[in-house]
Amino acid sequence: MSTTFWKAISVLAICVLVMLQSQAQSKRKKRMIQRVVSEAQSYLGAPYQYGGMSRAGIDCSGLMYKCYQSIDVKLPRTAKAQSKTGRKKNWDNVREGDIVFFKFRKKGEKWFHSGIITYAHRGEIRFIHSSTSRGVIESDLNAEYYRDNVKRFRRVIR
């Protein structure tokens, strides 16, 4: 057989190996996203508590911290610091597992808030967060109150 034939076989074998590795990484990434979202869902109904880190009471950044801790990713503890972690994303390419950050202003004060994207398809985006008035809930990101205060999206799972 010719040298060209063996070179072609070698290139084909390398391409197959790269494809298989990519598929394995993709499955691993999907499992990580599912785990983070599942962890967030397990907190639904938990009451809000400033600085809280448990199902007995948790704040928004504590929820992000605990969800990502479930896949051995350590996030900073505050929403403002978390908002600098990961890759920036925008409305058009947000996906499940991404974190959405908000910046609210009221009577001269401002504060950060965060939530984890649980569903993103054809413009419909839902997220779980710890609301100061309602505890851990799932909300529609397209609701005016949230949509108008989105500061940024971050992707921690690459």
TrEMBL record:
The reply on keyword rRNA processing is no
Looking at the record's lineage, which domain of life comes first? Answer: Bacteria
Q: Domain NlpC/P60: where? A: 30-157
Gene3D superfamilies of this UniProt entry? endopeptidase domain like (from Nostoc punctiforme) (3.90.1720.10)
- GO terms for biological process, alphabetical: proteolysis
Name one matching Pfam family.
NLPC_P60
Annotated Gene Ontology MF terms?
A: cysteine-type peptidase activity
Keywords (alphabetical) are:
Hydrolase, Protease, Thiol protease
Q: Which InterPro entries does the record associate with it? A: NLP_P60_dom (IPR000064), Papain-like_cys_pep_sf (IPR038765), Peptidase_C40 (IPR051202)
Q: Which family does it belong to?
A: Belongs to the peptidase C40 family.
Can you say what this protein is called? NlpC/P60 family protein
Q: Which organism is it from?
A: Marinoscillum furvescens DSM 4134
The organism that produces this protein has a lineage beginning with: Bacteria, Pseudomonadati, Bacteroidota, Cytophagia, Cytophagales
